Amino acid sequence: MKTTFLLLAVLFTTSLFAQTTTIYGKVTKSDGIRVKGTSTYRGYEDQLIITNLAGGVDHTALIELEVPTSGYVGTFRNMMNTAPTQIVAVKAATTINLKSAATALAAIPAKTITTPLSAVFPISRIDISITSRTNNQMPILTRQIILEDVNVESCTDDIASGTSKIKFKANRIGWIYNNWGVDGKLRSTDKSGWDVVKGTAWTNF
Asked: I need a surface site. Which of 47, 51, 73, 129 has the fewest CB within 10 A?
């Protein structure tokens, strides 16, 4: 009898403080337009609902997101194997005429200077937000993964489960950890990151 009551007490306590983790993804393309997801939750409207993620924990800046198969998956599939676009800046031509009382110098030929700038990737930024919710309380943001200058490596559909796995490779990856008190107030935030191209720490996000 005591064992039965103890088991019921444990089950009641577990259900009383049950936590739910929900992951959202905000994807911004190089033109500044967001990929519209299916989330309707306040604060995360139109973001991707991520059912599972793999990677995104080291300096390789590789991450795979599993999402319910939807129309926006085709957008990512179209981005696959898309080479970054090179943008150049052209400096306007300048003509200088120098004259003196005795000599008139011919106009200096105009010069056009072409300078390569940073490549434009199909995705400029991905914000992955991992939230935790206890019972019917408001969810809290526990941590984030930030990716910048991102390519789509692969996109695979699983018809049986109705999900799609999308693998991304970024030039920069960052992590944000929020530390919450038992009173539900944010105590501190830890931030770190890595620039894969430069091979240096990155926290400018």
From this structure: 51
